[in-house]
Amino acid sequence: MHETGKMWMTARTSAWSRKRVLVTGGAGFVGSHLCEKLLERGDEVVCADNFYTGSRHNVYHLLDNPRFELVRHDVTFPLYVEVDQVYNLACPASPIHYQNDPVQTTKTSFLGAVNMLGLAKRLRIPILQASTSEVYGDPHVHPQREDYWGNVNPIGIRSCYDEGKRCAETLFFDYHRQHRIEIKVARIFNTYGPRMHPNDGRVVSNFICQALRGQDITIYGDGSQTRSFCYVADLVDGLMRLMDSDASVTGPINLGNPGEFTMIELADAVRELTGSKSRLVRMPLPSDDPKQRQPDIAVATATLGWTPQVALREGLARTIEYFAKVV
């Protein structure tokens, strides 16, 4: 075969194998990184976002890519597009944002799941739900495994998010059982990295911004409560592996870094890496704030071959470099 013929066949094969992927919440922190990696892989990406917490700035560098399409859309309304996969990430994920409009937060989780599952049902395509470690509530089991049902307050100030995500999981598995939709459910633990919103109220962004501004670093409670922090590139890798796994792999699957740190340890690391002289000040612990949060990722490792690669100090350094330019 002539070289020209080989090149044409290669180009045609590449076009046939290319997927068209919908990412709801695609202009958000995690969503923008996912859109970026899907484009790098050669896929076409439809990014849908209502810009409540997402930002055009997060995907501005992608707008010139002919395989990228940005659509302003709220998932509480149906979306009619032709795609091969759906990543449903749309929902405010930080307490400040989801508690600002708790009714809308619950509607986004519930109606967003209904509408995106309806799309997947119509097209007979796989759909991934970005669930959360918040479904475990303030856990009595540590670390948290996927077979743990959780300890969640159904009427607390965090319930709009916790119970909204739990209900979305219910819908996903009922659509799977009743309509044979191929589903993937990822329970995402604390994630951090560039493009976090400076005022999202999450502990990593809070500590870094306060340290860079020379402000006091706010510790809630006595600082002994623990979290596990996963760098965003590792999380995106896990999400893509889960989506591309065998159809029999439905999840839920924990995606997070099992390294566990107290709030005091995190604050000390941020102060050291920023060279900040900020003092630590203590405030009352918010209602329903979990004391421990650590994923058991044995299922993700065995099923997806996935383990986080970026250590906390390395990820913090990259995140601090980003915030130093925007704070």
Protein model, in words:
The protein is an alpha/beta fold. About 40% of the residues lie in helices and about 15% in strands. It is built from 11 helices and 13 strands. The protein has helices at about 5-15, 30-40, 55-60, 95-100, 100-125, 160-180, 205-210, 230-245, 265-275, 300-305, 310-325; strands at about 20-25, 45-50, 70, 85-90, 125-130, 185-190, 190, 215-220, 225-230, 230, 255, 260, 280-285. The strands form 4 sheets. A 7-stranded parallel beta sheet has the order 3-2-1-4-5-6-11, sandwiched between helices. It has a two-stranded parallel sheet with strand order 7-10. It has a two-stranded parallel ribbon with strand order 8-13. α3 (about 55-60) links the parallel β2 (about 45-50) and β3 (about 70). α2 (about 30-40) packs across α8 (about 230-245), α5 packs parallel to α6 (about 160-180) and α7 packs across α11. Mean pLDDT is about 90; it is low at about 5-15.
